[in-house]
Amino acid sequence: MIGVFDSGFGGLTILRDLQKVLPQYDYLYLGDNARAPYGSRSYETIYRYTLQCVRELFSRGCPLVILGCNTASARALRRIQQEVLPFEFPDRRVLGIIRPTAEEIGRYSKTGHIGIFATAGTVLSDSYSIEINHFYPSLKVVQHACPLWAPLVEYGERDSEGTRFFVKREVDAILQEDPEIDAILLACTHYPLLEKPLRQSTPDRVRLVFQGSIVAEKTSDYLFRHPEMEARLSKNGKTSFLTTDTAEFFEKGAEFFGMDGISAESLTF
Ligand code: DGL
Description:
By secondary structure, the chain is of the alpha/beta class.
């Protein structure tokens, strides 16, 4: 199976696109809902939680795990790749979603000014600026943390008056900081769920960029370039779900992500 991990529900926006582009594979999704959100937690905590979840996905038969979470990709990926995999799991792979998104993002702007909405953890890591700079050195990148958004999504407040207020506040702030921004990347997998209030607050000249389809296309490229990994993946088109919260909580929440009628398994560490 391909493991897909997120702090909570957000990674379902990545899973949905993976299923669309690569429907033949089996997926095992793990949402650490009981400990979400990760966004404002310390580097050490995000690393520890993410590693625990990656180990769980490995132990359940995933040779490849995608961190469908920008915060975990920013705070834990490199350390897992450098300090854990070579020693404990030399034949397994963990991929993040920041680099593949950074590789493509320059194509979305005409003015050369890009806005990034992300969690505080992702913004603090500076990962997007660093990665984007490799591929598009002249692109101006303005990062903006939206610490309240993931908790609002996680708790089902996707289009309430309060949510609309907080969405508009951040959109206004980033465009005030750089009025030449013509594309904003939603660099937290929870944010696509705020599409409605985001579209209401964003002027038409500014494009919203969703990373799910980018990540799915890049995963497809990866599997094409790594036939040895591709050959190890089971192909029955099935998806299973794990959550650190209760199964009922996850099954209900997943409906907002278009995943109706799923059954989840609850796990405790
Ligand atoms: N969905 C996650 C991301 O892409 C993090 C949300 C959170 O747990 O704060 O960054």
